[in-house]
Write a structure and sequence with these properties.
single chain; 92 residues; mainly alpha; 2 helices; rod-shaped; disordered N terminus
């Protein structure tokens, strides 16, 4: 049976932890996009020249961004669990 050297395992763990960090950064970005979209939708809601339905469309896009952020955070936690060897990954 082949086994990984401790050094290779450490490098792999470090690589996984780097991915966890990037997933968390991406989740924060998606949350920021959702906030910006909601703010724009609110502004358009007070603008009589805004196309009809644009606020609702932006609100839907904000909800999708929030959902993506949640999924990215879940993926980060599952990967972190795997990297630590804490057992099975969490179930959504």
């Amino acid at each position: 049976m082949a086994t990984e050297s401790p050094r290779a395992g450490t490098a792999r763990t470090r690589e996984l932890l780097d991915h966890v960090g990037r997933l968390r950064v991406d989740a924060d970005l998606m949350d920021g996009y959702a906030r910006r979209l909601r703010a724009i939708a609110a502004t358009l809601g007070t603008c009589p020249a805004a196309p009809g339905g644009s606020g609702a469309a932006l609100a839907r896009q904000a909800a999708v961004c929030t959902s993506a952020a949640d999924r990215l955070r879940f993926a980060a936690e599952a990967l972190l669990t795997h990297a630590r060897g804490d057992g099975p990954a969490p179930v959504p």
